[in-house]
């Protein structure tokens, strides 16, 4: 996984955590769920990159 991809995935994960926390603080279930979805997407992208890296080596 390239360093840029790793940074993007980390940033997306952190943004998702922030959205989730903001949603919890405001009592906004939609924002909370959106944050969880963003975190899941980042995790899936990272897993995909790890699989690609495993087949390169």
What percent strand? under 5%
Rg over CA atoms, rounded to whole Å, is 14 Å
Q: Based on DSSP secondary structure assignment, what is the total number of beta strands?
A: 0
Unreliable stretches = none
Structural class: mainly alpha
The ordered string of helix (H) and strand (E) elements is HH
Gap from first CA to last CA: 11 Å
Form type: elongated
Biggest sheet: strands, sense, closure? none
Q: Which SSEs are present, and which pair or pack?
A:
Elements lengths: L2 H24 L2 H28 L1
Structure notes:
It is a single chain. With 57 residues, the protein is mainly α. The chain contains 2 helices and no strands. Helix 1 (3-26) runs antiparallel to helix 2 (29-56). The longest helix has 28 residues, at 29-56. The radius of gyration is 14 Å and the shape is elongated. The model has no long low-confidence stretch (mean pLDDT 93).
